[in-house]
Amino acid sequence: MRELYPSITPYATGMMDAGDGHSVYWEECGNPDGKPVVFLHGGPGGGASERHRRLFDPERYRIVLLDQRGCGRSLPHAGDPQVDMSANTTWHLVADLEMLRTQRGIDKWQVFGGSWGSALALAYAETHPDRVSELVLRGIFTLRDSELDWFYEGPASNIAPDTWAGFLGGLPENQRVPGRLVENYGTALFDPDPAVHQPAAVAWATWEFSNLTVQPRPDLIATAQDPIASTAFARIENHYFRHDGWFTPGQLIANAPVLNEIPTVIVQGRYDICTPATTAWDLHQALPHATFVLVEDAGHAYDEPGILDALITATDEFAR
């Protein structure tokens, strides 16, 4: 089984002025003369981490990571209740990626994204297919109504009723209405009072982090208890979900055939509660040339053993 590459530090970092009052943090690691790859984190709002650098052979890859608007080290941080979210949309993020590629002098890059990062990767690649050398996609999420309803409106509670009770507990009892939970959470998360939005944010993040893996990971769940980080994470996610990612229904899968010339690997955990395998399968039907890896005994997280093995196998193969 493959393991993460050893820890590395960036050889370059910066804050890119993306316009609209946003500064986007970026970093580069590995080999500055290597094969360019951009890592797109999940969420939206999850941020990039030191461990994400380690998915790629540092001797063969020029590894570019960024914190998308409003999260991580980017500014302004959505944990601040005064932050305006109007200039934080999928299409702003796609434009940010293209600006960063241009500023860093990269002609084409591999695009690697998991969970929300897979949606952003597809949106970017479908907009700029001539700038993508390969796609590595994990835990496929395209923000269709069926996907959002599954995890945030009640059906997933049939698998995880205990953690679902905690999710409902983030809202007043009279607002725990299936079919309106994302909307009602939006009201709570964007309330300026920390006594309202912080408990809601922690409940939202705890529900998600409790279901990332087949076996519970207390280390992941503990990160959801940070009220500032969880506020940014939950606000950005909720903002995107209430707007269906600014996609037309089924857009990412419907437009996927424009990617038929791009080598693609799709990696999916069979027991992924957050983004069930049906979406990955639907994407594979639209991209029959893609390598499709359905990992047994794995959930959603990139570092589930079988998923990690498939991802590093893919990046190693593409580096050759």
Annotation keywords:
single chain, 320 residues, alpha/beta, 8-stranded mixed sheet, 11 helices, globular
Q: What percentage of the residues does DSSP assign to strands (E)?
A: 15-25%
What structural class do helix, strand and pairing data support? alpha/beta
Helix content range: 25-40%
The total of beta strands comes to: 8
The biggest beta sheet is recorded as:
8 strands, mixed
Distance between the termini: 19 Å
Radius of gyration: 18 Å
Shape: globular
Alpha plus pi helix count = 11
Q: Overall pLDDT, averaged?
A: 97
Order of helices and strands: EEEEHEHEHHHHHHHEHEH
Strand order of the largest sheet: 1-2-4-3-5-6-7-8
Residue windows where pLDDT falls under 50 for at least 5 positions? none
Provide structural commentary.
There is one protein chain. The protein has helices spanning 90-103, 116-127, 145-152, 161-168, 181-189, 194-209, 218-223, 227-242, 251-254, 277-286, 305-319, and strands at 12-19, 22-30, 35-40, 61-66, 109-114, 132-138, 264-269, 291-295. The protein has 320 residues and is of the alpha/beta class. Strands 1-2-4-3-5-6-7-8 form an eight-stranded mixed β-sheet, sandwiched between helices. Strand 5 (109-114), helix 2 (116-127) and strand 6 (132-138) form a beta-alpha-beta unit. Helix 1 (90-103) crosses helix 2 (116-127), helix 5 (181-189) packs across helix 8 and helix 6 crosses helix 8 (227-242). The two termini are 19 Å apart. The relative contact order is 0.15. It comes from Kineosporia succinea. Belongs to the peptidase S33 family.
